Amino acid sequence: MTLINQPHDKFFKEIMQNIETAHDFLKNYLPKDILPLIDLDNLFLQKDSFIEKELRETFSDILYKTSIKGKETYLYFLFEHKSTFFKTTALQLLKYMVRIWEQKVDKEKAAALPIVIPIVIYHGEKKWETDKTLSAIIEGLSNMPQSIKRYIPDYEYILYDFSPLSNEEIKGNVKLKIFLSVLKSIYAEDSAEFIRAVKIAFTMEDLSQSARGIDYLETLIRYVMNARRI
Known about the structure:
Largest sheet: 5 strands, mixed
Helix content: 25-40%
Distance between the termini: 15 Å
Strand order of the largest sheet: 1-2-3-4-5
Number of helices: 8
Radius of gyration: 19 Å
Structural class: alpha/beta
């Protein structure tokens, strides 16, 4: 099988650009306090990417359009697929969020900016250890008085790091479970868990008996052959 460049990017996009899979992911993993507010029945994949060319070995992104209480809303997925996490992910995300807003202003002449909810999916070898806010990477800000803090932008992103979870703790339909199980174990030195996740995929009858299921398995095989360090 021919090796492909950026296998993590291709695997992530081929799976998560499927609206059914994205819906299943969001239904199972969005924070419970915002899940009822987001119109998951009307998800629209956007074709734009906001990542610089030189960072595409490290990040992938997908943008979905939806709404909250009738107001235009975007769910921005940033997939961090380097073996170690970026401590400046909050800064990277802010740049991409600003690009989304700039596009609304420049191309659509929007007078008001839409809501953008940033979501990070990480599957590196090391556990995610940095805070999920922009203020966490601004030196000394936590010790500053409120009179200073009020001038500094801040936000929090939603983080999903599946590496600490067992396969039994991963939720969703068959395709989503296999996708997340393979992601969490692709870097593992002990291949037992990884092999188990792949075997499960090939024993699922609903995958092997349909054209879409076979396409999914082919995507999985390409990813394993190109990304797994054997």
